Amino acid sequence: MSIVKYLKCMFxxxxxxxxxxxxxxxxxxxxxxxxxxxxxxxxxxxxxxxxKNVNRFEDLLNxxxxxPEVDLNQKLEMIEIQECNFIPSNCKxxxxxxxxxxxxxxxxxxxxxxxxxSIAEVIEHLKELHQEKGLPKDxxxxxxxxxxxxxxxxxxxxxxxxxDKMATLYLSFGKTPMNYRSRMYLKYDNDGELQxxxxxxxxxxxxxxxxxxxxxxxxxxxxxxxIEQENQELFNELSISWDEFQNTFSFKExxxxxxxxxxxxxxxxxxxYERLVRFYKRNGFYDKGSVYRRVSYNLDPD
Length: 302
Known about the structure:
The protein has an 8-stranded mixed beta sheet with strand order 1-2-3-4-5-6-8-7. By secondary structure, the chain is an alpha+beta fold. It is built from 7 helices and 8 strands. A hairpin with a 2-residue loop joins strand 7 (286-287) and strand 8. The chain has helices at 3-14, 20-52, 57-61, 91-132, 208-236, 242-246, 270-282, and strands spanning 139-145, 151-157, 167-172, 182-189, 193-200, 257-260, 286-287, 290-294.
């Protein structure tokens, strides 16, 4: 080392301007994070492949997501640098470059690990919800990935559906308390109207509300055969013709329209109501100031 460089380095070390004691540790951290990121991406790829191949709800619940045990904020022990090959005039810049690389890797790690965690948490939450519902055999479910690429899943208990009672459509976005679930309350009217009584999308601006409305459209062809079955069971108890039964108040029309109100809390701004209107319009559930959609009432879901 030249005497000039030696003196410059000694000056930097004396006044704590020398980054060498941090630089090589950042290099190690960069290498470790790259290796971890590669491993997490592989686990995510394996998990998404399993999700893609799911056909039955039971298959989804049986998926085990492998999560790496990692502390993304772990502190590395400092290493001793015997000899520094930096040029004193740009040594600080060299350190800043590798530090920025490490920060970028950390952001990507957080994102990829968040996606992997979302898959594991949704599956765990669905197990809890399914248990609460009494392990129904017939379940409608639909998997979506939101704007953060996090997994969500819409869930509806078809086995327990009774058109005379309030029904609930759920969207799972991870493990949450019972009163903090995205959900839609539905009430059937005998004239073929399905009312959205209330609608809570807990996490906003991620597409969750849209997923629930899309699923509602898919769900109706599955509900109509159940309504038809209720009609048949009641008709079998009566001593009248089918034509006569269809003219009674007890006959239930197949669902052919969805209705609801656009509700804005009293303390909400006018922009909040306008945002709701745009949301329902965008999803094809709006007409004349209300939630409305005409739907097919084919009794054969196939």
